[in-house]
Amino acid sequence: MDAIQILDNAIAEINSVRNISPCQGRDAIRKGEEVKTIARRVLIQIGSSKQELDNLNRISFGDDFVCRQIASDSGIGTMITSITQTYQNGLQTVINLLKQERDLRAEQLETKRQNQSLKYSKIAIAVAMISLIVSVLVALFK
Question: Cβ of 22: how many Cβ atoms within 10 Å?
Answer without folding.
Answer: 12
